[in-house]
Amino acid sequence: MDFVSIRIITSDVARLVEFYEKATGVQAAWATEEFAELRTPHATLAIAGTSTVPLFAPGSARPADNHSVIIEFLVDDVDSVHRNLGGVVTDFVNEPTTMPWGNRALLFRDPDGNLVNFFTPVTPAAIEKFTR
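The structure corresponding to this sequence follows.
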């Protein structure tokens, strides 16, 4: 088995795709007006409109209602990225902070309220974990 993607259901696909393109610098690949993917070397962030939910199971997902998942991106320098997100992110949850597990992390919310974590490993153990 291989974990390949996470999908966000939103009521405004274009707005959310634009946000993630600006925040990550990754260009989205659009399949339809209701489905786009931001592909990175290790995983994909899929963004889909509410009209796609009934294709799986009606009522199984609701936009802007996530209270448990944090979407995480590994970045080269979280402090530098933080400085460049000023015009993109309007809801920072915290400033870059070094976590006990060795990552320097920046937590913010996307336009739908989903938590997003940009992080950089800074301790030897954390760096080793991501350079294998």
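The longest strand covers residues 103-109.
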